[in-house]
Amino acid sequence: MNTGKIVAIGVVVLIAFGLFSGIGTYNGLVDAEEGVSQAWANVETNYQRRSDLIPNLVSTVQGAADFEQETLEAVTNARARATSINLDASDLSDPGRLEEFMAAQEGLSGALGRLLMVTENYPDLRATEAFRDLQSQLEGTENRISVARRDYNAAVTAYNQRVRRFPGSVVAGFTGFDRRTPFEAQAGAEKAPEVDFGS
Questions:
Q1: Which CATH class is domain 3-175?
Q2: Cα–Cα distance list, 105 to 51, 108, 131 (Å)
Q3: Cα–Cα dist 158/180, whole Å
Q4: 171: Cβ contacts below 8 Å, ≥ 6 apart
Q5: Quick one: pLDDT at residue 1?
Q6: Residue 23: CB partners within 8 Å, gap ≥ 6?
């Protein structure tokens, strides 16, 4: 074999290796992006579950004599705002959209917290089985939300690492894979809120 053929074969092998490596990297990015989308769907499902519990909670609380109407309206309005903001996977690279979504969800969490604090003044309400059941379901849902958010952040971290590391950064740049935004702790989140769901 002459030197020209050896060089040509070497170039073809390098191109083939680069092509297969690029395809593997691209497929890894696709898998990681799908993982982020799935984790986000789990977050949304749990927020939706919480939202679905609220009308029953409001209805149960309205049955209590002289319950503070302003508190119920705050919960209803916060729920309406939280459910009006929908994100899809393409919005997850926009920190502003995620922040808007989180602000609405935190507003709902705050309104629910105030509602549950006010129920302390209504021992008859707190004694009802329906109210205790709803409190238990809300507590479980809050735990599920926390786990789903943690899982989402783990998926985002794994995805962002693939997007930023070489050769993923090169493939991501050519194919349009953008970094995703993780959940960030709200100000004061280092102090756990004290919510009494009753005994």
A1: mainly alpha
A2: 10, 5, 22
A3: 10
A4: 22, 25, 26, 29, 177
A5: 65
A6: none
CA distance to 9, 56, 75, 78, per residue, from 137 (Å): 66, 11, 17, 19
> 39 and 155 in contact (C-beta within 8 Å)?
yes
What is residue 186's predicted lDDT score, i.e. its pLDDT? 63
Locate 117 and state its tokens. Answer: 């604090």
Instruction: Take residue 189 and report the two structure tokens written for it.
Output: 């989140």
- Count Cα atoms within 13 angstroms, Cβ side, for 161: 7
Quote the tokens at residue 99: 């922040």
Whether residue 195 is predicted with pLDDT greater than 50 in this model: the reply is no
Task: Kindly list the distances between the CA atom of residue 156 and the CA atoms of 3, 94, 97, in Å, as whole numbers in the listed order.
Answer: 49, 13, 16
Can you tell me which residue has the tokens 């191109």? 15
